[in-house]
Amino acid sequence: MNVNPAIEKLGFSGSDKVAILHVDDVGMCGSSLEAFADLWERQSVTCGSVMVPCPWFRATAAWARETPGVDLGVHATLTCEWEGYRWGPISTSDMASGLMDGERAFHKTSEAVAQFAVPAAAKRELQMQIEAALEAGIAATHLDTHMGSVMHGKLYQGFVDVALEAGLAPFALLLEEPQWNKKLYDEETISVFSEVTRALTKGQVPMLDRIVMLTLQGGEEDRAAKTMALHDRIKPGHISYLIFHPALDTPELRAICPDWRSRVADYEMLASGQIRDHLEKQGVKLIGCRELQDLMPKAA
After folding, report:
1. In DSSP terms, which residues pair with 240 in a beta bridge?
2. Which of 4, 180, 205, 207 could bond 172 through an S-S bridge, CB–CB 3.0 to 4.6 Å?
3. Please, which pLDDT band fits residue 1 given cuts at 50, 70 and 90?
């Protein structure tokens, strides 16, 4: 059994199962912030990440300033997936950056980002998103990725670099090359992932072992059962990153998101406490991303 080297640094043993209960898309809209604020108060989740380019970023920052100790990272945003609700870069309005589509908003898919984004422009955009979060008073703990848009050979190194420069725990998986191959990435991307993983391991930067997330497309009726079944696969000696997209059921959310039912279902099952209770009954140790940030080497 391979044991994540961060496990013992966190005070656990190699036989322990460790997980992070993470909320994505905070500040994407009003109901996403309201859901996270409520779940944080209930202690139903352990951290989340804010979408800086989105309309509800400032409200999220105001809430974070009033909520001491909140574990909130930056949700590196290079995509805008919706039809009638668009946002774009905070760093540039230059179409030559490759960051925008014909509506001057971010591309709708991660594939389009990989195809068109100029790497230097993408890196600068992520730097400015972090800077904006810090300047707004958010004590950011980590940098993760919206829709996996940075998970491409020409963008991933820049993503990790800006996280390390800011002292944030980066979204990074402790996988070897054969494991990346199973995820159907191209050879260039796998090479970059493998090289970055080796560098982060050498630098003693904490990494994750597995991402666990139920799709937002359908299956709301038995969403809690399916989610808990996924959680039952968490392995000893691993740090698993459990991703949710909770939001309150509001007219705003229904107007924006075709997948609003799944987002509301995520909120309801987390608010009920059944997810956290299930994990704790399974002996899973829960941490936030602040604990990973605390392990970041000062020279990173």
Report:
1. 19, 210
2. 207
3. low
In whole angstroms, what is the distance from residue 119 CA to residue 154 CA?
Answer: 6
Structure tokens at 134: 């810090």
> Taking CA 147 as the corner, what is the angle to CA 181 and CA 132, rounded to the nearest 5 degrees?
125
Nearest-angstrom CA–CA distance, 69 and 133: 15
User: What string of DSSP letters covers 251-289?
Assistant: HHHHHH-TTHHHHHHHHHHHHTTHHHHHHHHTTEEEE-H
- CA 297 to chain centroid: 21
Q: Select from 295, 291, 294, 226 the least CA-distant residue to 47.
A: 291
Find out whether 193 and 154 touch, Cβ atoms under 8 Å.
Answer: no
**Confidence bin at 14 (pLDDT 50/70/90):** very high
Q: Could you tell me if 2 and 197 are in contact, meaning their C-beta atoms sit under 8 angstroms apart? A: no
CA angle, 100 as apex, 99 and 105 as ends, to 5°?
A: 125
Average pLDDT over residues 134-151: 98
* Phi, psi (degrees; rounded to nearest 5) at 70: -65, 140
Q: pTM of the prediction?
A: 0.96
Task: Name all domains of the chain by residue range, CATH numbers in brackets.
Answer: 6-294 (3.20.20.370)
Among candidates 237, 232, 236, 196, which has minimal Cα distance to 212?
Answer: 232
What is the tens place of the pLDDT at every residue in 274-283?
999 999 999 9
β-strand pairing of 47-50 with 284-287:
unpaired
Strand partners, 79: 107
Beta carbons within 8 Å of 268's beta carbon, 6+ residues apart: none
Q: Which residue has the tokens 């949700």?
A: 75
Burial of 274 from C-beta contacts in 10 A (0-12 / 13-18 / 19+): middle
Distance of CA 91 to the CA centre of its chain: 21
